[in-house]
Every structure is written in structure tokens, then in C-alpha cells.
Amino acid sequence: xxxxxEIKDARKYYGSGNAVSKALNGVSFSMEHGEFTAIMGxxxxxxxxxxxxxxTIDRPSFGSILLEGRDIAEMKEGELATFRRxxxxxxxxxxxxxxxxxxxxxxxxxxxLKKCPLRETExxxxxxxxSLEIADQLSKFPGSSPADSGxxxxxxxxxxxxxx
Length: 164
Prior knowledge:
Elements: E1 3-14, E2 21-32, H1 47-54, E3 62-67, E4 70-71, H2 77-87, H3 103-113, H4 118-132
Antiparallel strand pairs: 1-2, 1-3, 3-4
């Protein structure tokens, strides 16, 4: 197998002087292509911080994060934006959908930003909708579906019974 991800002495500090908090303190490990890894630890142990620096949401204070040999911690903002769009997928605990866009529009947004041809976008949308069994939800807005009434918190200022 090839190394997919290699974290070398990753450190993330917040604050300054005597008020420095060490969210990550010398984390090192690697993951191979096809390998599944669980990140576990007590509350406040740095799990979310580690995921944020791997996902380029935040930068480490020190150390390197190599994805297929390339140090993503050294990328410039423009490179990071392209990298996130083309190479990363995020699954957040909350939906993080744009409530002014339909479900379909939220799904194809990254393809539109990449200027993917319309035919390809439609094909990929149909495949994703079929795979997730959500074809009947595509024209709805986030929060307007009965499926949204489960664990997702209500959007402040909006009734859960009415679309935006």
C-alpha cells in the first residue's frame, strides 16, 4: 500500500505567553490508501483540532501534514481552495447546507464551482440521488423535508413546518 496521509510532529497552540493552550502536542502517525482509522479520545483531547488541520480548515502551529507526499500545511490559500474543492469531502455533524439553495443545488455546488459540464453534473446528481434514495427530495430546501425533523436542530427564526 501507499501512504495516503502522514502527520509529522503536528502541534497546534492557541493563545500566547503564559496563556498558551496546546490543542495538539507532537502528533505523528500515517495512514495507507484503503485503511480505515478511528480517532478517539476524551473531550478536549484535540480530536476536532486534528481533523481541522488535516482538512485544511486550520493550520498547524508546527509540523507537517503530508497528503500523498505533499505538505498541505504549506499550501497558499488559492491552492487550498482548489485542493478542498477537488480532493476533500467533508461530513459534518450538522448538515451545513445552504438554506437558500435546494437539496439538488447544494449537491451540485462544488461541480458548478469547478465548471463541470451540465450533462456531467446532471449525471452525477442523478447517481448520488439514487444511491442515497433522495430523488424525491431534490427540489426541496434544507429543513423542509420530513427527513430533516430527526436529529438536526431547527434553524433559528424559522418554523420547522415551513420552507425558507
